[in-house]
Amino acid sequence: MARSIENYLRLVSAGTRHRPAERRWSPAADVYQIKGGWLVKVDIAGVRPEEIEISVGGRVLVIEGSRRDGFCEETLSYHQLEITYSRFEKTLRFPCAIDGARLERDYRDGFLLIYLHSDEQDCDDDASTRQSAADDVQPET
Q1: Higher pLDDT pick, 65 / 132
Q2: Read out DSSP for the chain?
Q3: Distance CA 123, CA 115 (A)
Q4: How confident is the model at residue 132 (pLDDT cuts 50, 70, 90)?
Q5: Once rounded to an integer, what is the mean pLDDT over residues 102-119?
Q6: Domain residues of the chain, as ranges?
Q7: How far apart are the first and last CA of the chain?
Q8: Top mean-pLDDT range of 3-7, 27-31, 46-50
Q9: Cα separation of 36 and 19, whole Å?
């Protein structure tokens, strides 16, 4: 039995490019089109604001950072672990260019709020040709 478990674990880990400690998790995000731009809300409870990096290029917004467990000591043994502590990355592709937008960020109650203010309307505002610009925002894989 132990040998079959070892074989299974070896096969599972052989298919990954990174060691488990190097894998990045992807936080949940909501995107809203608002007057004058966009609002992105990212669920990153437990991440210190200084640990967050935001970059914009073309139609893509990238949010990166790290959540660390500062409450536990090395000598602790655990009973249950469900919270992911490691590097994270969230990449969102917008239906129009956002690289000229003025970026404003706020961190409240575990949510990172990113406002992308733009004077330009690069997106097609014709409601008959598309449902909603927020529906067009796609997470990168």
Answers
A1: 65
A2: -HHHHHHHHHHHHHT-SS-GGG--B---EEEEEETTEEEEEEE-TT--GGG-EEEEETTEEEEEEE----S--TT---S---S--SEEEEEEE-SS--TTSEEEEEEETTEEEEEEE-S---S---TTT-S-HHHH-EE--
A3: 16
A4: very low
A5: 95
A6: 20-139
A7: 36
A8: 27-31
A9: 42
Do residues 54 and 65 touch, judged by C-beta distance below 8 A? no
Among 57, 62, 56, 53, which residue's Cα sits nearest to residue 29? Answer: 62
How many Å apart are CA 37 and CA 52, to the nearest integer?
Answer: 21
Q: Domain spanning 20-139 has what CATH number?
A: 2.60.40.790
121 to 38, 49, 103: CA distances (angstroms): 11, 30, 16
127, 95 in Cβ contact below 8 A? no
Q: What angle do CA 4, 6, 9 make, to 5 degrees?
A: 110
Residue type, 74: E
The order of strands in the sheet holding 138-139 is 53-57, 60-66, 87-93, 138-139
Q: What is the mean pLDDT of residues 120-136?
A: 48
> Tokens 């478990």 appear where?
5
